């Protein structure tokens, strides 16, 4: 049957697929729009399978919080190229995935992909986007944080995002301080909130390194562990959030900055995701 330009354009508006792909889909399905949409989705699935071995190291990372700041999510939607990662439609799709996650609070990526989205599942919508874009895309990271006051920060270019959980109820002042803490986390990538959050294996490694350094400097064997413990204090200062020097004002720590902003304010947890 003859496929009109108007029909092709209508399917293109419905799906976002390319003009030639839409014409082929309508031709293959004798002008059946529902069938044509399925055809394009199947094309997307085929593309996805064909590109399964491609590296998808670019993408967009979106952090969002609920209206009451009790919940926060980070979604990392990957792509093969920076060109796609910067595309407005791709970024908008990543935001829509974060909205779905916020609404339903799935436990993991598989649960997220099983959620309904615009008449399909999230997984099917991703396949649909593969058909439109022609690149391998996928949700490769998903973080969910619950708390009394969650603050989100997205670094320029959507290449890094942070969620910070604060202990005090939301206020204009503490949300601003939380943003500062999130920017600190983005810049310096601490290994934990405070000393107690550092993985014991990291501590063991730092002590071993400190002892080896002291030994190489000719320090007495019975002093090695004490010297290493001293070096560990420097490690905590450089690598745990609350003990780090505040990047905007090196005269105070992050813990002091938070407390000065609002009495008793502190960070209870954070998540950082980057390309």
List keywords for this structure.
275 residues, alpha+beta, Helicase, Ruva Protein, domain 3, Tetrahydropterin Synthase, Chain A, 3-stranded antiparallel β-sheet, 10 strands, 49% helix
Account of the protein in words:
- The chain has helices spanning 5-15, 19-28, 33-50, 82-85, 88-104, 109-113, 122-133, 172-188, 200-216, 224-239, 254-261, and strands at residues 58-65, 71-79, 116-117, 120-121, 138-146, 149-154, 160-166, 245-246, 249-253, 267-274.
- Among the domains are: 5-50, Orthogonal Bundle (Helicase, Ruva Protein, domain 3); 58-146, 2-Layer Sandwich (Tetrahydropterin Synthase, Chain A).
- A hairpin with a 5-residue loop joins strand 6 and strand 7.
- Helices cover 49% and strands 21% of the residues.
- It is elongated, with a radius of gyration of 25 Å.
- The strands form four sheets. It has a three-stranded antiparallel sheet with strand order 1-2-5.
Quick synopsis:
This protein is an alpha+beta fold and 275 residues long. It has helices at 5-15, 19-28, 33-50, 82-85, 88-104, 109-113, 122-133, 172-188, 200-216, 224-239, 254-261, and strands at residues 58-65, 71-79, 116-117, 120-121, 138-146, 149-154, 160-166, 245-246, 249-253, 267-274. It starts with a helix and ends with a strand.
Principal-axes shape call: elongated
Strands in their spatial order, largest beta sheet: 1-2-5
Q: Any idea what the radius of gyration is?
A: 25 Å
Strand content of the residues, in percent? 15-25%
Secondary-structure blueprint:
Blueprint: H1 5-15, H2 19-28, H3 33-50, E1 58-65, E2 71-79, H4 82-85, H5 88-104, H6 109-113, E3 116-117, E4 120-121, H7 122-133, E5 138-146, E6 149-154, E7 160-166, H8 172-188, H9 200-216, H10 224-239, E8 245-246, E9 249-253, H11 254-261, E10 267-274
Antiparallel strand pairs: 1-2, 2-5, 3-4, 6-7, 7-10, 8-9
Helix pairs in contact: 1-2, 2-3, 3-7, 8-11, 9-10
